[in-house]
Design brief:
Length: 228
């Protein structure tokens, strides 16, 4: 859409149990890095190489946030006040991970991505509440038509999480992504110009405005009103 521009204002989204705060390296990098550094399995299904240091997280986050169409949030579990990693105070709650809303504004489309929920917060209210908040932002405030979710088809945990929130499977895009060297994936053919970088077959799921207005908005409201 020629001439269409999206300008973001920083925003916080929250319920009684979770806050999505704009990612701030000085507040969030160290507890996030300490959370992921002990769990290399978190990178099994991501196109992101494992972070070697807190500085590596900062460099990655800076690249993410340099794109004005990406909103990167820290997920703050408000039920765990004072429960930060050793040496960290957590007056508002513990850093439970990160998530982003990535927009394609000229197509009125968004994507929920860059989702890392730390192991101590998995299978709790954290992921579902974060996704619900982003869906409400996307459809009720930004008036997007479509929000998508991408993952490898074999990542059943991610697929289930998306489907629980109303996302519908649309199909697999084969060889959709080239990942950094060292990140697992499908082996390219002999003579490939990037032989050290594997490829990913990516499953697309989506929830659209008519799904939202057809019942998922009300279901999401119920999720956001839960205290745990």
């Amino acid at each position: 859409m020629p001439g269409y521009e999206q300008k973001y204002e920083p925003c916080e989204l929250e319920t009684a149990v979770l806050k999505l705060a704009p990612y701030t390296p000085s507040l969030h990098t160290r507890p996030f890095f300490e959370g992921v550094s002990k769990h290399p399995e978190l990178f099994r299904w991501t196109p992101t190489a494992r972070f070697a240091s807190a500085d590596g997280v900062d460099d990655w986050a800076a690249k993410v946030m340099a794109d004005p169409c990406r909103r990167l949030f820290a997920m703050i579990d408000k039920t765990r006040v004072g429960a930060g990693p050793a040496g960290h105070s957590a007056p508002e709650g513990a850093v439970a991970g990160i998530v982003a809303l990535i927009e394609t504004p000229d197509q009125l489309m968004g994507e929920i991505g860059l989702l890392f929920t730390l192991p101590a917060f998995q299978r709790t209210h954290v992921t579902r509440t974060a996704v619900a908040l982003l869906l409400r932002l996307a459809f009720d405030e930004l008036n997007l038509r479509r929000v998508q979710w991408r993952c490898q088809a074999e990542n059943t945990a991610s697929v289930r999480a998306a489907e629980r929130m109303g996302f519908q499977k649309e199909g697999v895009h084969r060889w959709n992504r080239v990942v950094p060297p060292g990140v697992p994936g499908n082996t390219p053919r002999e003579g490939d110009p990037m032989p050290e970088s594997m490829g990913l077959h990516v499953l697309f799921l989506a929830i659209c405005w008519d799904d939202w207005e057809g019942g998922w908005a009300e279901r999401t409201k119920g999720l956001l009103e839960k205290h745990v």
